[in-house]
Design brief:
By secondary structure, the chain is of the alpha/beta class. The protein has 2 domains: 5-58, no CATH class; 65-217, SPOUT methyltransferase, trefoil knot domain (Alpha/beta knot). The chain has helices spanning 15-18, 21-29, 39-45, 82-95, 113-118, 134-143, 180-183, 203-217; strands at 8-14, 33-37, 54-58, 72-77, 100-103, 127-130, 147-157, 167-172, 188-191. The strands form 2 sheets. It has a 6-stranded parallel β-sheet. A 3-stranded mixed β-sheet has the order 2-1-3. The chain starts with 7 loop residues before the first strand and ends in a 5-residue tail after the last helix.
């Protein structure tokens, strides 16, 4: 059954799914507005080729950067691929409790359907702060004690970091990496050590490895 369905404003259900007595009883217990659609109507509103019969309309929730009390922030600086951002969100949720995603113009919208699907629904486990200028959001985080780490092939090994309490991992666009403007505001550049026969990792894979190391460095993973 759909997780966190109680947060939905409205729920749209294929008539085939709603014909199950157990599903129908579950729907009747929800506070959200429920619409049961014909197969054709449901297919017309779903963006999936083979939908599973449930669609929800959920309130878009964001926080202010200064309100965040956690230990990890992720800042996609120009990430364009929804699949990459979704995978990064999933990794952040896997390695940190309630991580913060810093969303700014120039990167794909974390609330877009493709990103939500690529995150496997784990966007709901992430706090999202929308900022008009990414550099200002990063400076705000630094003022709250976050170490700003830019993921770059030329940086120091992420394994060499020590004494980290709160960190913000900044990842650049898939094609050109971090811009000069972003590199001017980060504290340190870090890289993922790897075998020489592989030129570089996919952006999402690199972020996943870096987040796992940071989680271990901050004492969250044993």
């Amino acid at each position: 059954m759909i997780e966190d369905a109680d947060r939905a404003v409205a729920l749209y259900v294929d008539e085939r799914a709603a014909s199950d007595p157990e599903v129908l009883a579950w729907l009747e217990a929800l506070e959200a507005e429920v619409w049961i659609l014909s197969r054709r109507a449901f297919a017309s509103v779903s963006t999936l080729t083979t939908p599973d019969g449930f669609l929800s309309l959920v309130e878009r929730r964001v926080v202010e950067v200064g309100e965040y009390q956690g230990r990890l922030a992720l800042a996609p600086a120009g990430v364009q691929d929804p699949g990459n951002l979704g995978a990064m969100i999933r990794a952040a949720a896997a390695f940190f409790p309630r991580p913060l995603l810093l969303a700014a113009p120039g990167a794909v919208d974390p609330f877009s359907p493709k990103v939500v699907r690529a995150s496997a629904g784990f966007l709901r486990k992430v706090e999202v702060a929308e900022v008009p200028v990414l550099e200002d959001g990063l400076s705000n985080l630094r003022g709250q004690g976050f170490l700003l780490l830019g993921l770059e092939m030329s940086g120091e090994s992420v394994w060499d970091l020590s004494g980290i309490d709160r960190a913000c991992l900044v990842v650049g666009s898939e094609g050109s990496g971090l811009s000069a403007e972003i590199r001017s505001v980060i504290d340190r550049e870090v890289r993922i050590p790897q075998q020489r026969q592989v030129e570089s990792l996919n952006a999402a894979a690199a972020v996943s490895v870096a987040l796992a190391v940071l989680s271990w460095k901050t004492g969250l993973l044993a």
